[in-house]
Each structure stands twice: as structure tokens, then as C-alpha cells.
């Protein structure tokens, strides 16, 4: 079932709000990571992480990658549309499951409403 225009507008506004909150929260967390690394003279573990994403169009996947990249501490390196995976560089990989949960909670619901596909 396709989302109507009102539902899509509400999803877009909610997605924008969640994205802005994620940028601010991630910015504060990234400053903390950098500060702790500077004080301890030891950087946290960074990593490349593959993150599966919900079925969505190419435009939705590209927007997801952009949103992840614009969120401090993460950078999308590659989008694999066939596997529906993003390859991310994560500045602090001490809890990659939290990164995955954040993407699924904050970005995917709105993007699926706007750009979702079956299966």
C-alpha cells in the first residue's frame, strides 16, 4: 500500500526533525570522542562496518547515505543496492550496534515511507 501525500509530508517532517537531532547529538558525542582521545593520547577504535538497510529505491538509499555522512562520526563509503548494504566508516566503533540501531530508529522509517519498496 502506497503512502498518501499527507502521510508522506508528515514522514518528511519527522525525518527532518530526527536528522537534525541526530546531527546535534552525534556532534556532541564526536567532540567527546575527540576530547577523550586527546586527553588519553589514545584514539578509540575506528572501523569499517557493513550496515543492511530496509528495501527502498536508489534515491532513498542515496539519501540515507547522505544523512549518515552528514551525521558527525560516520561516513558512508559505498552503497550496495543489490545487497541493500551501506559500507560505513565509524569514528568510534566501540558500539557499532548502537550505530545500527540509531540509523534504523532515526532514518529508516521516514525513508521507507518516502522511498520504500517491497522485499
Automatic annotation (TrEMBL):
Keywords: Cell membrane, Membrane, Transmembrane, Transmembrane helix. Pfam families: MNHE. GO terms for cellular component: plasma membrane. It is a multi-pass membrane protein. Transmembrane segments: none annotated. InterPro entries: Cation_antiport_E (IPR002758). It is found in: Cell membrane. One of its GO terms (molecular function) is monoatomic cation transmembrane transporter activity. It comes from the Bacteria. Belongs to the CPA3 antiporters (TC 2.A.63) subunit E family. This is Multicomponent Na+:H+ antiporter. It comes from Tepidimonas alkaliphilus.
Amino acid at each position: 500500500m502506497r503512502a498518501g501525500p499527507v502521510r508522506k509530508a508528515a514522514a518528511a517532517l519527522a525525518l527532518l526533525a530526527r536528522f537534525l537531532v541526530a546531527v546535534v547529538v552525534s556532534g556532541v558525542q564526536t567532540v567527546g570522542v575527540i576530547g577523550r582521545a586527546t586527553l588519553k593520547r589514545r584514539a578509540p577504535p575506528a572501523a569499517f562496518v557493513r550496515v543492511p538497510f530496509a528495501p527502498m529505491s536508489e534515491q532513498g538509499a542515496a539519501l540515507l547515505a547522505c544523512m549518515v555522512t552528514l551525521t558527525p562520526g560516520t561516513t558512508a563509503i559505498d552503497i550496495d543496492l543489490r545487497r541493500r548494504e551501506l559500507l560505513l566508516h565509524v569514528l568510534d566503533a566501540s558500539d557499532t550496534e548502537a550505530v545500527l540501531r540509531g540509523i534504523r530508529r532515526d532514518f529508516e522509517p521516514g525513508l521507507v515511507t518516502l522511498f520504500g519498496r517491497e522485499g
